[in-house]
Design goal:
Blueprint (H helix, E strand, L loop, with lengths): L1 H26 L3 H40 L2 H7 L5 H28 L7 H4 L3 H14 L1
Helix pairs in contact: 4-6
Amino acid sequence: MADLRFNEETRTTVRKRVLAEHFLKIYGKDLKELDKDGEEQLRKVHESQNSSQLMSNIFWMIASIAVFYYTDFAIAIRVDHRINRLWFNIGIALIGLNIAIGIYFIVICSWIRKIPTDNWEKHAPALIPVATASFIAGSIW
């Protein structure tokens, strides 16, 4: 049984080695050059994804502003007597906390400190769960 497993592992290793040699013969490049080309291609893909995310974010911001402007939401919040102000103010405070954390990440971490978005969890591990919880709780209240 052990010999059969060893043979399978050996076959897999040989198969990978043959494929790698065949790949290098076809493209005729050194592995270091392949890594540089791959890094450049990954950088281009990442930049294009960032631009599409930026356009999506801009669209949602414009849509939320339009909904707020064209409905009587602001007037209803200020004048409607059916709103329980205690719970409303707690909800607004929790949503405000969520927005403050978002501004911290976007403005301070991304723009000022130049921390990539992938490293936000390493930089401030507790803030993302706090922002999520405050948004959920603020939405309920």
